Amino acid sequence: MRYPDASVGNGPINKNEPVKNGKRNFDKTDNGIFTKGEAFNIDGAWHKYTNDAHGTHVGGTMAASRDGNEMHGVAFGANLYSANTGGNDNMTYGPNQDYDFFLQGYSALADAGAKVINNSWGSNRRVNSSFAGALGYKPKYDWRDVPEYGVQYYDVPKAPEPISSPAAHIYLSNLGEAEKAYYQFVTSGEKNFVDAAYEVAKNKQVIQVFTAGNRSMMAESFTRAMLPYFRPDAEKYWVNVTGQVGGEGYPNDSNDDVSDEKAGADIQEFNLAGHSKWWTIAAPSANIYSAYIQLQDNDTYGEPYLQIGWWYFNGCTSRKWRIRCHSFSLSIHDDRSSTRCHADYSKTNHAS
Fold first, then answer.
1. Burial (0-12, 13-18, 19+ Cβ within 10 Å), 220
2. Which of 175, 238, 284, 335 has the most crowded CB, counting CB atoms within 10 A?
3. Where does residue 315 fall: left (phi above 0), alpha (psi -120 to 50 degrees), or beta otherwise?
4. Largest CA distance in the chain
């Protein structure tokens, strides 16, 4: 199933009422159950009622075209190859995700020429879909002292106490808990998306980029980013990314506000690297101006486009800002007897 935590809010978009009170409306009754071995057919474009805006925003941040309009990405001259997860950010980074589906997606990206695959999708697991006895994480926010800058930042000031709530995110409070989280991926006897990512990285010599997790003061990174700790030969193919905040004067101006709060620049937030520190980098995680899909009260989304960018496995691809776009769409067809992949190329200059 794609959404084992649907009952606590981590579900697919409600197709009957996708927008409610101006916000995405999720279906708490749909776990996204699929049958192992069933055929699928999905391309890398953004799909209404399936995807959200996360992949769009990340794609623009990475490499939106530098043409003098609005903004541009870091690698603005690069190409984008996108694959679709078939869901939104509520899909869990867990052993419940189908190995074959992700193997086809990762393989198509690598075969098309991608050298780095950025995984911008999914949510951390909840206690009710994790291992027996797992404890949860429910942070308390307050002002946190940042002595190196002489400022305070409104975040999680200290590691919270573990709780037993099934709706809470699984809590990697120490290495022992991180090891238990990893065991879920190897004890069922079946492969999952982590195996697909690992095999494609190793066999096709590509880099996999995963987020550490968006939980400040958590002692370890989540399994997908921590994988080389358990499989050392994966280290040369893996990048773990945690966050740091910074304002207009990043990284040296400690007088600027961050997210409308008094804060300095270059302050780490989200999961700590922990035992993944050797393959971890930190990147800006606040006030990033990029492409996005705008939800509207009439149950529609902003018009979707493929974003020029790097290469990434995405939860969504589209664009909002006026950006010259070189777009590539990978269409993956899997009928269990053959896999076909084609790239559609288009060049546009369109304002949405």
1. buried
2. 238
3. alpha
4. 62
The C-alpha atoms of residue 125 and residue 192 are separated, in whole angstroms, by: 15
Identify the H or E element spanning 182.
Answer: helix 175-183
Q: Which pair of tokens denotes residue 23?
A: 């916000």
Contact between 263 and 151 (Cβ < 8 Å): yes
Alpha-carbon distance values, 177 to 130, 134, 180, 214, 219 (Å): 11, 8, 5, 17, 10
- Per DSSP bridges, beta strands 116-120 and 136-137 are unpaired
Q: d(Cα 38, Cα 222) in Å, to the nearest integer? A: 29
Which residues neighbour 66 within 8 Å (Cβ) at sequence distance 6 or greater? 72, 73, 76, 77
Q: Can you read off the two tokens belonging to residue 148? A: 């190196």
CA distance 33 to 96: 10
Q: Global pTM?
A: 0.81
**Who's near 34: CB < 8 A, 6+ residues apart?**
1, 2, 98
* Cα–Cα distance measured from residue 170 to residue 211, given in angstroms and rounded to the nearest whole number: 15
Residue 244's CB is within 10 A of a number of other CB atoms, namely: 19
Per the DSSP assignment, residues forming a β-bridge with 331 are 43, 342
**Contact indicator for 118, 310 with CB cutoff of 8 Å:** yes
Query: Do the strands 312-314 and 323-334 form a parallel or antiparallel pair, or are they unpaired?
Result: unpaired
Q: Tens of pLDDT along the chain (352 residues)?
A: 999 999 998 999 998 888 888 788 999 999 999 888 888 888 888 888 888 888 888 888 888 889 888 888 888 888 888 889 989 999 999 999 999 999 999 999 999 999 999 998 899 999 999 999 999 999 999 888 777 766 777 889 899 999 999 999 999 999 999 999 999 999 989 999 999 999 999 999 999 999 999 999 999 999 999 999 999 999 999 999 998 876 554 445 545 444 454 444 567 889 999 999 999 998 877 777 888 776 555 444 433 333 232 333 443 333 222 222 223 333 333 333 333 233 222 222 222 2
How far apart are alpha carbons 6 and 29 in whole angstroms?
A: 6
